[in-house]
Write a structure and sequence with these properties.
Rossmann fold; disordered N terminus
Length: 409
């Protein structure tokens, strides 16, 4: 028994000595699920401090229903930028490397769903920034985003979202009221002054209508028919288009997501309409062409210049990469959300933080100034005091089946 006890003591001493003199091991750090909060610890080693952290960025938009193509194309631009940033090793803020986790939720183009998604993104995923591609969703989030402390990256040209004075909103595309003059002048001169309005029934469509129709009348035009189309419910537009055409308009004002807007134009042609179109800036001429197979359906239409016909430092490279990844050419919504993601990252770098929305918003001009030239799918010189990106308008029309540039004074 004594011999056994001695051997046991010797074995225990060997184990203690091995534990004291051996090389320490460390287990992999647990994921923080995008949150930057960590439990108190001793000063990390140089190796640990270089380990990339994750910042969650949110997205809420229509990923199902009739506006799904629109939502997915806005999301695709941000997705592509995030993938590039992460594949390049992330980005550095104050000596710490970060990668991005993009958390996307479907709101079916319904503002109440956007609001609910935003609450979920902030509470469950601690997102300091949320992208959304429709004004109704922006307005829903603006009710509480300052209180809940998150920055809205708004892909909408609605002027009211920045006129509201919300300090944590950035408007990505140019405001749409700048299109009233070039759009109206072009179709009036070419086709006449009688207008029928058939835009989308969303809040954005209503706001566009409330801006365009008074301007049209101020220019000496006449509004002969006014209605709207609910693309979430209507799939056959025969009756409403027939009613509009019975008033003999020279021009139809149409718009909403590109695919259903193209179907409205196509059906109007099938019913004998030979006039021009004012295309609300949400719909894109090149995307509408995918529905009909030809620009001839939209002869005399005036709208936003398609990205693939634009000429900026980073446009060609972006179009090539996007087409290789998604199998189709990008529209302006993909391009603008792509560049907005890079601008956001540059603003985070300049602000020295990834989770302080107020500081990030305050450094958004630095984000614009520091954007690499090869990422300039568009050239955006400045952000206004109201939070809207400021850039020259790019307008196009369809003439003889081809896209032509329209000069904006």
């Amino acid at each position: 028994m004594k011999k056994g006890l001695v051997l046991g003591l010797i074995f225990s001493l060997v184990l203690i000595m091995a534990a004291c003199g051996g090389t320490p091991t460390s287990s992999p750090p647990e994921s923080n699920n995008g949150s930057d909060s960590e439990a108190p610890s001793e000063t990390p080693s140089t190796e640990d401090s270089q380990e990339a952290k994750v910042v969650n960025i949110g997205y809420s938009g229509p990923l199902s229903g009739p506006a799904a193509f629109y939502g997915k194309r806005t999301l695709s631009g941000t997705e592509m930028a995030v993938e590039e940033i992460n594949n390049s090793g992330g980005f550095e803020v104050n000596g710490q490397t970060y990668t991005i986790n993009l958390v996307s939720l479907d709101d079916k183009y319904l503002p109440n769903e956007t609001g609910a998604n935003a609450k979920r993104l902030v509470q469950e995923h601690q997102t300091p920034v949320i992208f959304t591609p429709h004004s109704g969703g922006v307005f829903a989030m603006q009710v509480f985003n300052e209180q809940d402390n998150f920055l809205i990256m708004a892909y909408t040209s609605e002027p009211k979202i920045t006129e509201s004075g919300n300090s944590l909103t950035v408007r990505i595309p140019p405001r749409y009221d700048g299109y009233m003059e070039p759009f109206s002048s072009y179709v009036m001169e070419r086709f006449g002054n009688k207008l029928a309005a058939l835009p989308t029934a969303t809040q954005y469509g209503k706001d566009w209508t409330e801006t365009l129709l008074p301007y049209w009348e101020e220019k000496g035009g006449e509004v002969v028919y006014e209605s709207s189309i609910d693309f979430t419910k209507d799939t056959d537009f025969f009756t409403i288009i027939t009613n509009a055409l019975n008033e003999n308009p020279d021009v139809l004002f149409i718009g909403g997501p590109s695919e259903p807007t193209a179907k409205v134009a196509k059906q109007a042609r099938e019913l004998g309409f030979e006039g021009g179109f004012i295309i609300m800036d949400q719909a894109k001429l090149d995307e509408m062409k995918r529905v009909t197979g030809t620009y001839k359906t939209f002869e005399g239409a005036v709208g936003v210049m398609p990205l693939i016909h634009a000429d900026y430092p980073g446009t060609d490279a972006f179009v090539e990469k996007y087409e290789a990844k998604y199998g189709e050419k990008p529209g302006s919504e993909a391009g603008l959300n792509y560049i907005a993601t890079y601008i956001l990252v540059e603003a985070m770098k300049a602000a020295g933080t990834v989770d302080d929305p107020e500081a990030i918003r305050a450094h958004m001009q630095d984000g614009l100034d520091n954007l690499p030239e090869d990422k300039q799918v568009y050239v955006i010189p400045s952000i206004g005091e109201d939070g809207g990106f400021e850039a020259d308008l790019s307008v196009a029309a369809v003439e003889n089946g081809e896209i032509v540039s329209i000069k904006v004074e």
